[in-house]
Amino acid sequence: MKTTDKKAAKKAFALAAATILAVSSLAGCSKQVSGTVSTDGSTSMEKVIGTLGEAFEEQNSGVSFTYNPTGSGSGIQAVLEGRCDIGLSSRALKDEEKAGGLKETILAYDGIALIVHPSNPVENLDKETIAKIYTGEITNWKDVGGEDAEIVLIGREAGSGTRDGFESITGTEDACQYRQELTSTGDVITTVSTNPGAIGYASLASVNESVKAVSVNGVTPAEETVKDGSYEIQRPFVLVTKEGTKLSDAAQKFYDFAMSDEAVSYISGAGAVAAR
Q: What pTM was computed for the model?
């Protein structure tokens, strides 16, 4: 065989091998699985995780995806006790939780919006003023450019990832003078929407037209300002798993999907900023 023929044969063989490898890899990625994927935790992640779960089920007809909105603390505990596949937390894991065998993977970032009733004329608050409002130093809207009316403080329950994020960022841990402590993002939004004197905080991904999000330090809460870091009151959306515990095939495939490039558009569409 001529040298040129040998080179051509080797080139053809290499091309064929690469094609086989690519097809094999693609087949592995599209491998169908069955079973249940159970998630538990943050109510703030409902829109993001619901969107991802729905898309995942459409691509994997043999899989049932479940989401239990119990709050970040409960979701973390559920993973620790083996009651779900993947926990959902809207705060970073604490050192003691990591020491207890839990692992965090940041899925996305979300702004914590300060929300008021749509009729409230206040458009902007700085972080120092927000802290003074929530610790009871400022109690009337007229002192921050609003009407002469009492400020009604609405927040989340102890153990909430949203509360943990809000209080740690504003420096108000264990000092907030809440009128009401509610157990879900939806409850906070509903309560603020029906009380002209109320102020609350909620996941930006969940805010709707029934409330008004105020600017913080002159920066409007939005996907782009969370992404570039100019909106300061933000926190991570975290997937929580247990070190040394292998996920089921279905749960692993969902985890891989959630962290893939394909998931970025779904996360964005749900109002959060993908960590990728």
A: 0.78
pLDDT, one tens digit per residue, over 107-116 is 999 999 999 9
Q: How far is CA 138 from CA 142, 152, 184, 208, 225, in A?
A: 10, 11, 26, 27, 27
Do 135 and 172 meet the contact criterion of CB atoms below 8 Å apart? yes
CB 239 within 8 A of CB 104: yes
In the chain, the domains with their CATH numbers are: 35-108+236-274 (3.40.190.10), 110-234 (3.40.190.10)
- For residue 241, the SS3 value is strand
Cβ count within 10 A of residue 239 = 23
Contacts (Cβ under 8 Å, ≥6 apart) of 263: 52, 55, 257, 274, 276
Structure-token pair, residue 65: 């995806």
